[in-house]
Amino acid sequence: MKNDPKENKATLDKNPAYVNFSYLKELTLGNREGMIVMLKAYLEETPKLLGDLSLGIEKNNWRAVKNAAHSMLPSFPMLGMDSKYENMARKIQDLAAKQEQPKEIKKLFSELEVVCKKAMEELGSELSILEKN
Question: Which fold has domain 9-127?
């Protein structure tokens, strides 16, 4: 796979902390449109899922928490994010399914929310670059 330096300027100028754009490029076979679609999907769905998690935790709706966490799981490997974030979401899912350790769920959600928001910033920056080319 050949990378166009102009097309990848955002990822060359800085070292992303959460998203592995190399993996995303490999997954999309370097197809710019494919990357745009994947980035937009994450940027659209993740805020909804974070909202569902937050509301579910607030209302002690563990089924909603479990479902939202489960829906997030595929996005972590798809974006080449560290597996520890996927494991955090999986732990939230598992604890919510058992309706156990609400304090631990809240703690994990707090950490995961920060990570997802940082990833969204990185993805938004990359999306802007890709859409301009």
Answer: Four Helix Bundle (Hemerythrin (Met), subunit A) (1.20.120)
